[in-house]
Amino acid sequence: MKSVVPVLTVIAAILGFWLLAVVPMNMHLVADQAQRDGMLVEPDTPTARQEVGGIGLAIRNPDLILLTYGFKRPRLPSPQQVAGEMYDTIFAKKVTSKRSLVYHGWVTLAPTLLGFAIGTGLGILLAVGIVYSRVMDRSVMPWAIVSQTIPILALAPMVIVVLGSIGIQGLFPKSLIAAYLSFFPVVVGMVKGLRSPSAMQLDLLRTYNASDTQSFWALRLPASAPYLFASLKIGISASLIGTIVAELPTGARAGFGARMLVGDQYGQPLVSWAALFAAALTAAALVGLFSVIERATLRRMGMGAA
Amino acid sequence: MIYVMLGLILWILGWWVNVRLANGASSESTLVKVAVPAIFGLVIVVVWELMVRGFEVNPVILPAPSAVLERLGQEGPTLWADFRQTVLKGALSGYIVGALAAFIVAVIADRSDFLTRGILPVGSFMAALPIVGTAPILVKWLGSDWESKAAVVAVMVFFPILVNTVAGLKDTNTMQRDLMRTYAAGYWPTLFKLRLPAAMPFIFNGLKIGTTLALIGAIVAEFFGSPTVGMGFRISTSFGQLALDMVWAEIVVAALAGSAFYGMMTLIEKRVTFWHPSQR
Predict the structure, then answer these.
(1) How far apart are CA A12 and CA B122, in angstroms?
(2) How many pairs of residues across A and B have Cβ atoms under 8 Å apart?
(3) Chain B residues near residue A284 by CB distance under 8 angstroms
(4) With bands split at pLDDT 50, 70 and 90, how would you rate the model's confidence at A121?
(5) Minimum mean pLDDT among A35-49, A221-235, B203-217, B223-237: which range?
(6) Quick one: B272 exposed, middle or buried, by C-beta within 10 A (0-12, 13-18, 19+)?
(7) ipTM exceeds 0.85, yes or no
(8) Per residue in A168-198, pLDDT tens?
(9) How far apart are CA B64 and CA B53, in angstroms?
(10) Which residue of A has its CA nearest to B18?
(11) pLDDT tens, B30-52?
């Protein structure tokens, strides 16, 4: 609780910096527009203005500063413009509307969740296999670790197009990428977790004459819970990022990624920025949700420290 | 059909060899530890080749590894130019800028407990966000050459490295700090002689996370505009020409570059944090 004030201070500082940056970023565009509208701008030709930096231009034309915050097609929109656009597209639009961010959010979220569920399920299965089979441990584990260093996310758009060309469309291709991205963090975390019981604990179960299955359910699986949650949080944000990247350059018509690109191509920066922030909020909400579940579960299991 | 049968047989054979090796008497030797995953990987590639031939998969969907290998040999100069543009110019320069910025901010923030408590949660929150989404915006601002890619990379690697460095600088105990105080060491000697070395395992953790992010950022950013060279550019244009073997060749290069980058960081880490329990 005592970190609330520092966090708010840091956020306020970031917002303040953003507010200040809006002026020089948009000044040239605003000055051009103002001149077209018949206002007196100093210096009075666009080429001459290019010679002056954004800040210099703002000092010479102080009356234009306020205009930079409400400019229609800004290079850097001001925070309140983004907030306004987000309010507009999240609350004021009907959910079924093509301009509603809730609609686009769902288009992105559905494959993310499906893929995440698939990836997590398979990841846990593979982890169990790795822990109980030496062969799998020796042959798969090194590749699981190496695969973390490969920028596979960058290929997401290609996967979508390939699958699309053989007739697989809709939810599945994007889920595949989300599944792939959540798969390996879960494998690596779960292997660590399932191996976390100490030799003493395992020996204790052996003195009870517990079978492998029994010691799995009674000791290994519960012991892996903290590791599982840590991996789940990494996995869900990786899944979401994967889905968004998959939507970015593939000509997808709906979803956060598509909105970011549409806004960029049709000169509506506000649309891009609103989609970007909505995606960020979604990621935050998902990670937050898992933190809450984690805390509740671990407390029920008697492992919750705080 | 014969290829498919051959593939299945090879798969079983490879698995059998691995079972023998992994459960055998010398399963702890380094040779076996390297051989088992190597056999596994090799078998997968060969089975892939046989399946592609056996089922006559359209090369537009999945090219055979041999075709990819052939492309790798033929297109050496192009791949090298793409590598230079994307990895050396875009990813590496962005990585260095982002890491340095994160490092400096971390050291400054560390001077005040208040700032640390604010930056840690905000930073780890930002690290989980889809920052790649800023790529179209940054490409628009900075033009399509490597500067915009470097900017995307810098923003992407900034937060993980920041969070890890800040957490690392906190990782000294009272006894160690008290010892420095008994030596009458001020802020700077304590920072350089105790806290920075102690933070190194954390910093390298962040740096290693950053390596993959850097390549992803540089490649993805090229999808939104690039000069006619670069790995992301090549991937998307080869894709448009349905030259999937070229796409896979770029994937191989990206995978090698990613692993090499990560491996390099691990090597440096070993040299720098030789004292840490995890390295001994």
Answers:
(1) 11
(2) 161
(3) 125, 128-129
(4) very high
(5) A35-49
(6) middle
(7) no
(8) 666 788 888 888 888 888 888 888 888 888 8
(9) 8
(10) A135
(11) 777 777 778 888 888 888 888 87
Mutate to test the interface with B, among A104, A116, A141, A155 (most CBs of B within 10 A): A155
Residue partners of A20: CB distance under 8 A and separation at least 6: none
CA dist B255 and A152 (Å) reads 8
Of B36, B132, B251, the CB nearest to A139: B36
> Buried b / exposed e across B183-215, counting CB within 10 Å, b at 16+?
eebeeeebbeebbbbbbbbbbbbbbbbbbbbbb
Domains and CATH numbers, chain A: 4-75 (no CATH), 101-300 (1.10.3720.10)
Is B232 close to A154, i.e. CB distance below 8 A?
A: yes
> What's this model's pTM, rounded to 2 decimal places?
0.81
Q: Which of B15, B37, B61 comes nearest A143 by C-beta?
A: B37
CA-based nearest distance B253→chain A, Å:
10
CATH 1.10.3720.10 is held by the domain B72-275: yes
Q: Which residues of B touch A146 (CB under 8 A)?
A: 259
Would you kindly state where each structural domain of chain B is located, as residue ranges?
2-57, 72-275
Nearest to B40 among A139, A245, A256 (CB): A139
